[in-house]
Design goal:
The complex is a heterodimer of chains A (about 325) and B (about 210).
Chain A: E1 18-25, H1 29-40, E2 45-48, H2 55-58, E3 62-63, E4 73-74, H3 75-88, E5 92-94, E6 99-106, E7 109-114, E8 118-126, E9 130-132, E10 148-149, H4 152-155, E11 163-167, H5 171-181, E12 186-190, H6 200-207, E13 212-215, E14 218-225, E15 229-236, E16 242-246, E17 249-252, E18 256-258, E19 288-290, H7 302-322
Parallel strand pairs in A: 1-2, 1-8, 2-5, 8-19, 10-17, 11-12, 11-17, 12-13
Antiparallel strand pairs in A: 3-4, 6-7, 7-8, 9-18, 14-15, 15-16
Chain B: H1 6-15, E1 23-29, H2 37-48, E2 54-60, H3 65-70, E3 78-82, E4 89-92, H4 99-112, H5 120-127, E5 133-139, H6 146-159, E6 163-169, H7 174-179, E7 187-190, E8 194-197, H8 202-213
Parallel strand pairs in B: 1-2, 4-6, 5-6
Antiparallel strand pairs in B: 1-3, 3-4, 5-7, 7-8
The chains are: A alpha/beta (about 325), B alpha/beta (about 210).
Chain lengths: ~325, ~210
Amino acid sequence: MFDFKVSGKKSRSQGETQQYDLIVVGGGAAGLTCAIYTSRDSIKTLVLEKEATGGLAALTGQIENYPGFPEGINGLDLMEKFHQQAERFGATIQEFEEVTEVEPVSKGLLRVHTTEAVYETKLVLLATGSQPKQLHIPGEEEFAGRGVSYCATCDGPLFSGQDVIIIGAGNSGLQEGLSVLNYAQSVTFVEFLPHSPAEKILQDRVMGHEKSAFYFNQQVLEIKGDTKVTGIVMQDRESGELQELAANGVFIYVGYAPDTKFLQGLVDLNRWGYIESDAKLWTSVEGIMAAGDVRAANPAQVSIAVGDGAKAALAAREYLAAL
Amino acid sequence: MAFLNDETRGQVTEMLSDLPDQVQMLVFTKPTGCQYCDVVTELLTEVAETSEQVSLKVYDMTVDTEKAAEYRIDKAPAIALVGARDYGLRYYGLPSNYEFSTLLHGIQVAGHGAAAQLDAQSKEYLTSLDKEIFCQVFVTTACPHCPGAAALAFDMAVTSDLVNAEVIEAQEFPQLSSQNNVMGVPLSVINHSERVEGHAPASHLVAAMKKSLA
């Protein structure tokens, strides 16, 4: 059946700086959970999200290991519930508004600059999540939007009846591959490792599918095409043998990278760009916390992001009470 | 059975409660070969019920050919959102899932006669145009990045009478999508030549507009 989601920007008064107790940067599982807790606790909370809320979880076809949903739940539906729950308690959620700078001013005062406005807040939670990693191989950038995609939920339906390659046979690759198998004529998985690192339940489902095929221990060297993707070139990591595979679409799921470029020079990041934080989620800068996938050494799981969001909310309450 | 549940209906009612201008939703259908024409009509009937400022008229484009020509409609289902005047806002397909927000945004900007968010430089360029711009934004309904791109096109269209914004659900119009090589969404195509992939800032669309007119 059909679903109808209401989202978008709220109207705001122009010309005056708006003040909040807490600004959450990022409207994924961690950010929205924190907003549910803090707004319910009468902490004036603003969530700023550069796209629609939901984060990576919203791009996941079916989430089966989030407690409370024995039959599994569509990622989009789950995150819509998070959004509604945060709004129910009074959180303000601004979608399609990107944060460009977080500026610490003094103890208990930070300015958050966005593409649209400047806000003042006592506390900031960074919950910007992560983005699919790129391979940085020839053809990847050239054919982005011309057959190369990082979002099966968005673009999978455009490859109905066609041949698709999914690079990466980990959890994300197989999970999203299952959704592409609903549309495509064939789905070929190409994995760098000699085996699939995905959960066994996913492997069983995808490997047993009549339209799927697998290549392991392969390094993808190039994405080929003319006006659009025509296939890939890969090399067997053991024998060195080169092989071309034909396809109309290439979906890339080779892990994730944190969304922290705008934070460089502000908070401590590890060598991969993830935010360093302590056990209570405080970063190296007073008044700024981090939660969810963007935090160093945090596995990208909705349940973990939810736990982080709740912890951040409790720490926020403690911090604000002491100000 | 109603498409909008009570909660969604309440949100829509609130969003459309302060429109200064009347908005007409003109739906164009055809009797055959249109999977979602009836659904679009039913959905928009429910939307129209939420606000006295919003009304619905349904045309069969195979019968009401003059009306279809007047609004430059050549496929169905099509929705023309007309405020105090026709700002050139069109949605082709069923605006379900995330795209329901695009429809609501279109109604809001048509009802206000002004963009929700647009930077001063983009506004200056758009209001100085002396040639027509067609902006087609291809979307899919489960794409969370798409409403931002669609909303930007609508904002631009309402800012300049020379900008027309068509949001097209790519799966429902496979031939048009194929002609435009749509293999990822959102994709904005300016004047059938320049392509802007993803939910890009207004400055990227303006640059593509300039290039298309050069």
